[in-house]
Structure formats: structure tokens, C-alpha cells
Design a protein that fits this description.
Layout: H1 3-13, H2 19-37, H3 45-56, H4 61-71, E1 80-88, E2 92-100, H5 103-116, E3 120-121, E4 131-139, H6 146-153, E5 160-164, E6 167-173, H7 177-186, E7 193-200, H8 208-222, E8 227-232
Antiparallel strand pairs: 1-2, 1-3, 2-8, 4-6, 4-7, 5-6
Helix pairs in contact: 2-3, 2-4
């Protein structure tokens, strides 16, 4: 198994957001997808992917439809994705993906978390290069041969593929998302969920005491309503 498998295993073992936070994140994903390609999922591949993720998270259909409708409102005109970079204590790099309608508020909040926890908010590009930007797809395992599928999907950018109790997961570079999505749809293979992740190229081992310091900062960041995802280089 490769780096994506180990990264996924560590993330799965770690506690993650409550269901309400998950729905909030998906709602923001819908807003960004509609702003980018319109409200029709048939012609908007990004929106199609987010709706699949909403279904996988058991998000009610009414919530999805409301989010799509809300995305067309003027209130979301200033909504944008912003990336923050910095260092936690003990030299741990942190990358934060946010979706916000008030960048000044988000910047002030993120900066305050770093300051309160002895971290440092960095400049653009200061840590992003330490992470590989990847895309992933989860499909049902039934009727699929993992090794055969891997050979077939290499041509579309898939670099790592493995099975777990929830199906088959494929990882590829960020820019391969569209080609893989199209090929799976052409093959009538159900996409259970899909998304993007940033996998650290190198992780750093820390002591339990140091881990507690880093976790304190991570928890503050993850609780922020504007934060979508948080990635770091701490070994878990």
C-alpha cells in the first residue's frame, strides 16, 4: 500500500466533524460548484460530484435542493475559496482550506488561532509545496477486480487503488479528476463519493506532549465555520 492508503487510514482512525458540520461543508461545496458551473448537475460535473457526496453523507434531499437554490442568491456572490498556510508548534506545517463570504473575518480568526497556540500564520506558498494535491473516488467493490481496474484506470491518471470495508478507493493527481469521473460514468460505474485531499509528502514524528500542543491548534481551526479541511505534516 502507498502513501494515500496510509493517509486515509490515519484520517479514518482520527475523530472528525459532527454530522452538522459535514452538512455545512457540503452546503458550501454546493455553493462553490453552482457558482462555477451553474445549477444543473447534468451539465455541471463538479455539482454532480458534490450531490453524490451529499447522498453518501445521508444529507436529506431537501437540504441539497435548498443549497442549490441558495447558491443562486445574491448573498453568495462574494463567496470564495481561500487557502491558509502556517506552522503549528514544533515545526508542524498546516494547510487550511476555507470557503468564506467575508475574507477579513476569516483571516482574523485563523490568525488568532495560530497566535493563541504558539503557531505562525505563513505567507502564500510557504507550506503548500509540502503537500500533494490529489483527487479520490470511491466506488462499490461488487463485481470489480481491483488489479484489473487499476491497469485500466492508469491511463486516466489513477496512481493508487485499494479496497476497504466501504468499497474501492482510487487516488490520482488533482488535475485527473475530470477524466476519471467521465470514464467511470461512461462505464456506468456508480460513484459513491469523490473529493480532493492534500497528502503530506513527509510527516514528522512528535512526542505525546508535542502532539497535544499541535492538536490544540488543529481543534480550534477545525471548529471554525469557514474552515472546510485541515491538513498537516504531523505523523499520526
Amino acid at each position: 500500500m502507498g502513501r494515500a492508503f496510509e493517509f486515509r487510514k490515519a484520517r479514518k482512525m482520527k475523530r472528525w466533524s459532527a454530522m452538522a458540520k459535514t452538512f455545512t461543508r457540503i452546503g458550501k461545496d454546493i455553493v462553490m460548484a453552482v457558482k462555477e458551473g451553474g445549477p444543473n448537475p447534468e451539465t455541471n460535473s463538479r455539482l454532480r460530484a458534490v450531490i453524490q457526496n451529499a447522498k453518501a453523507a445521508n444529507m436529506p434531499k431537501d437540504n441539497v435542493e435548498r443549497a442549490i437554490k441558495k447558491a443562486s442568491d445574491k448573498d453568495t456572490a462574494n463567496f470564495k475559496e481561500v487557502l491558509f498556510e502556517g506552522y503549528a508548534p514544533h515545526g508542524i506545517a498546516i494547510l487550511i482550506e476555507t470557503a468564506t463570504d467575508n475574507n477579513n473575518r476569516t483571516v482574523a480568526n485563523i490568525r488568532s488561532y495560530f497566535n493563541k497556540c504558539n503557531g505562525t500564520l505563513g505567507t502564500q506558498g510557504s507550506v503548500e509545496f509540502m503537500f500533494d494535491h490529489t483527487c479520490n473516488f470511491r466506488i462499490p467493490a461488487e463485481g470489480q477486480d481491483v488489479e484489473e481496474l487499476e491497469l485500466e484506470m492508469i491511463d486516466f491518471g489513477v496512481e493508487e487503488i485499494f479496497a476497504d470495508e466501504d468499497g474501492i478507493l482510487m487516488y490520482a493527481p488533482f488535475e485527473s479528476f475530470g477524466a476519471i469521473q467521465k470514464e467511470l460514468e461512461n462505464r456506468n460505474i456508480e460513484i459513491l463519493s469523490s473529493g480532493f485531499e492534500r497528502i503530506p509528502q513527509i510527516t514528522k514524528e512528535v512526542t505525546p506532549e508535542q502532539m497535544a500542543d499541535v492538536e490544540k491548534l488543529l481543534e480550534k481551526i477545525e471548529e471554525d465555520d469557514d474552515v472546510m479541511n485541515v491538513y498537516h505534516t504531523m505523523q499520526e
